[in-house]
Amino acid sequence: MQYALNCCTYTESHEGGQHTYTFTGRCVVTGKQHSVTVPAEGLFRYHQGAHIQDAFPNVPSEDREFLKSGISPEGWAKTFAHDPE
């Protein structure tokens, strides 16, 4: 979650009775904006030492990767695209 905490902006929401944070930043591969929303209780667990996959089990792994490294799902696909030729 180092990328999100150090390189992204965030907004806080209490919409629909849910407390969430949305982190937005540029993908380090594509340069395009990408946003990931996480539950506040998961963010608290992460700050208390939980592993990212345990703190945010309902956040897709591709979005957790963005929070960690700054590589969006599109950037991951571009970086690791397999060209059979």
Features of this protein?
3-stranded antiparallel β-sheet, 22% strand, single chain, 5 helices
The percent range for helix content is 40-55%
- Helix count? 5
Number of domains: 1
For the terminal residues, how far apart are their CA atoms? 35 Å
Mean pLDDT: 94
Q: What is the SS-derived class?
A: alpha+beta
Low-confidence stretches: none
Read across the widest sheet, the strand sequence of neighbours is 1-2-3
What does the overall shape look like?
globular
Percentage beta strand: 15-25%
Q: What is the radius of gyration?
A: 14 Å
* Order of H and E elements: HEEEHHHH
Characterise the protein shown here:
- With 85 residues, this protein is an alpha+beta fold.
- The chain has one domain.
- Helix content is 40%, strand content 22%.
- The protein has five helices and three strands; from the N terminus they run H-E-E-E-H-H-H-H.
- A three-stranded antiparallel beta sheet has the order 1-2-3.
- The longest helix is centred in the C-terminal third of the chain and has 9 residues.
Write the layout of secondary structure elements.
Blueprint: H1 2-7, E1 9-13, E2 20-26, E3 33-39, H2 40-47, H3 52-55, H4 61-69, H5 73-79
Antiparallel strand pairs: 1-2, 2-3
Short description:
The chain has helices at 2-7, 40-47, 52-55, 61-69, 73-79; strands spanning 9-13, 20-26, 33-39.
